[in-house]
Amino acid sequence: MDGALNQNGHHPRADPSPLSDPSPKDPAPAEDAESEPRPGRVRKPIGWSTIIIAALVAVSAALVWRRDGTDGVLDILTHDLSLFGGILPRVLAGCLLGAFISEILPHEKVSRSLGPQSGLKGLLIGTAFGAILPGGPFTAYPVASALLAVGADFGATIAMVVSWTLIGYGRAVAWEIPIMGTDFTLWRIVISLPLPVLAGGLGRFVYVRLYPKRDSDEEAN
């Protein structure tokens, strides 16, 4: 009966179970940590390389001024500004390419394939990627920077850059085969094949021992 009382003298519908009511103060379930984007590398706008280059520029400008006077310095400065204006669009395009790649590439897959725990497979993948990567330095170095930002380690990235430098098929097809011949190009590529893997393995070995704390932090992320 609806009017019946329970053993405590209360209506059975008047005392709902507290477990059935959701508490508005309960925190929302935390999102999976793997779904969160990996923070990129924080880079200082002015580093040692910038300071060294600025010092060399200042010394060179002083030497040119002493030898050729103000006209010599202005002539070099005008020529360099013209050169800078010509390469600036390519530098901008390369930086944008690297930024887009770092957003498009899946961080987990890159870290698994090219990260510190990828072993020899990561070095081989980096070598193969560098060998087929087209374009010049305005493409290769932004792509390498993007790979570092999304989880690739120093070893795989070094293998990619060395492979792009030594094996890059674009230069071989466009320049080396027409000028040096097919036999020379093929033997040069075969002899160069182990070098990116060796350089990447050495880079990984040195990096882990120079920056053990930073490497462990990257593995934790």
UniProtKB/TrEMBL annotation:
The chain crosses the membrane at residues 46-65, 81-101, 122-148, 154-174, 186-207. The keyword Transmembrane helix applies. It is a multi-pass membrane protein. It comes from Bradyrhizobium niftali. Keywords: Cell membrane, Membrane, Transmembrane, Transmembrane helix. This is Permease. One of its GO terms (cellular component) is plasma membrane. Belongs to the UPF0718 family. It is found in: Cell membrane. Pfam families: ArsP_1 (PF03773). Residues 1-42 are annotated as: Disordered.
